[in-house]
Amino acid sequence: MTTISTKTNAQQYVDGVFLKLKEKNAHQIEFIQAAEEIFISLVPVFEQHPEYIQHNILERIIEPDRIISFRVAWQDDQNQVQVNRGYRVQYNNVIGPYKGGLRFHPTVNESIMKFLAFEQIFKNALTGQAIGGGKGGSDFNPKGKSDAEIMRFCQAFMTELYRYVGPDVDVPAGDIGVGAREIGYLWGQYKRIRGAYEAGVLTGKKPGYGGSLGRKEATGYGLVYFVEEMLREAKQSFINQKVVVSGSGNVAIYAIEKAQHFGAKVVACSDSSGYIYDPEGIDLKIVKELKEVQGKRIKEYVTHRPNATYTEGCDGIWSIPCDIALPCATQNEINGEQARTLIANGVKVVAEGANMPSNLDAINEFLASDVLFGPGKAANAGGVAVSALEMAQNSGRNYWSEQEVDSKLHDIMKSIFNESSEAAKKYGYAGNLVVGSNIAGFIKVANGMLVEGVY
Ligand code: NAP
């Protein structure tokens, strides 16, 4: 272990670790971005906890336990063999088995895997459940693939991954491009290879086949429960608020559903091609039919709703005036300029359903204004929280009712909000949920690392 004087200034310590991280990972832009956002928040913690500097917690925590990468060869419908790269980043298992989703998307690379896995450590700690942090995926593009191709790819992926995962080792789940269908194929292959019904190895399975009721809805509903707490503290509610949601995937659809249920008017959503604006309020039945059932593009929506408009390209969605903005698509979808536009148009709340959808400039703009800002690490933790509930049901070989799962999710989101808010106050940043959630998550993991000794 590097010996560092406890007299070292906390800021110097954090800067020094960050400098090394940038040197070692020079080309990993997303990873550096995620690390910087967390590091800035942690300076006050190191000021009050010199023991964390003594044990060099920061330099240890930013180095993943291991990064696994592997070849995934599979045959397409023309019998042509294709090759993709698979990843699993096992970042930290101090609190529980590694836990985090799998992303199948052509942009997947080591930087994206590391940023997602790093954030997952703190998100999972915030849920209060026994889960560590990890993430995985592949640069495989599921778009335009047949069901048989998806199945063969998932089987080939699991044929490599199975040796690194297990109910007490590492428990993957879904993310972009990986839903219940893909989880089903991955689970089937794992079971066949292992010759055992270890249902807790994957979460996001279909209800009735090892999956939990309420998992599909959990991230979107959880996001809205989190925003409900933000609004409650500001003595407001969702009723009659105008909401813009980006994306029209799993997180976006169920965020829209719950926001509408709470009385909000959701006027826009998008996919990677463009966005729709429906001034009368989005008809979610049409969006679900197009995206969940038919796998079509969001632009088809306007053929069913003559008063709605479609705009090609995603950037403009943040120029639609709204009270609440919920980015639920992907990383870096709001930059500083878009944040300024949202603020100028009177946005009151921005809460992240996606992982790192706002870049650092955007976050700084929100924090410097009166906007209430809910960072993804806290606001979108509902999905992984219900995944941990799925693991608990798998261990007990039983199923809980939808109401039971939803009520636990609601309590977890309230508790994440309260813990983040309290930590922000305690360290002198009242109202800043970025600092609060980073600190609350970090301290749980850091204390566990002290207990477990140096490794
Ligand atoms: P998903 O079901 O695959 O949906 C992603 C949605 O975002 C799709 O509508 C996609 O459009 C759209 N999209 C992708 N890139 C875009 C871009 N550059 N601009 C605008 N829209 C874009 O994925 P998801 O599970 O909802 O995940 C969305 C985000 O939430 C990700 O950041 C993920 O890491 C995060 N998250 C997910 C969960 C979960 O439980 N699923 C939990 C926590 C965090 P196309 O249909 O055109 O691809």
TrEMBL record:
Organism: Solibacillus faecavium
Recorded GO MF terms: glutamate dehydrogenase (NADP+) activity
UniProt entry keywords in alphabetical sequence: Oxidoreductase
Cross-referenced SUPFAM superfamilies: Aminoacid dehydrogenase-like, N-terminal domain, NAD(P)-binding Rossmann-fold domains
Classification via PANTHER family: NADP-SPECIFIC GLUTAMATE DEHYDROGENASE 1-RELATED
Origin superkingdom: Bacteria
Keyword Glycosyltransferase: no
Residue span(s) of domain Glutamate/phenylalanine/leucine/valine/L-tryptophan dehydrogenase C-terminal: 212-453
Protein name: Glutamate dehydrogenase
Gene coding for it: gdhA
